[in-house]
């Protein structure tokens, strides 16, 4: 043991004492997450407002922590929630069990379930950490309280994934400019 070993040990302490301290002001300034961050789940909708979830329960089967509960229901002519024959009548995710692995979103055949960048899920009440379908369902586009028709938009739904929500807003606006923009986007995506 050398005579200067204690001084060498304090060298690290003294070198960091005069550096600027980096402080995160978390509640006021929220951290920007990575684009593919696995945060809170979201049940997506079709551009016309109908739910994408068909109640197939594949996400629940894929979940290794058994955090998802899905119960499917049948659509009727009077009450249509999704474009197919079935919809997710009861949907729950228990965030006390969820490990954020993303296997549920990989298993979803309709891309109904995705994960957002929202990471503030802590609560002091255990019951509030069981999110129901109402908590998870994506909001309707502005101005749409009810879906405009009982079925999905149709042939150009594939273009919604290519061109994003702007195409849906143009289609739903119904304006001549919006309609021409949407038609040109659909023709451009088909090439």
From TrEMBL:
Its EC number is 7.1.1.-. This is NADH-quinone oxidoreductase subunit I. Keywords: 4Fe-4S, Cell membrane, Iron, Iron-sulfur, Membrane, Metal-binding, NAD, Quinone, Repeat, Translocase, Ubiquinone. NDH-1 is composed of 14 different subunits. Subunits NuoA, H, J, K, L, M, N constitute the membrane sector of the complex. It comes from Umezawaea tangerina. It comes from the Bacteria. [4Fe-4S] cluster 2 binds at residues 63, 98, 101, 104. GO terms for biological process: aerobic respiration. InterPro entries: 4Fe4S_Fe-S-bd (IPR017896), 4Fe4S_Fe_S_CS (IPR017900), NADH_quinone_OxRdtase_chainI (IPR010226).
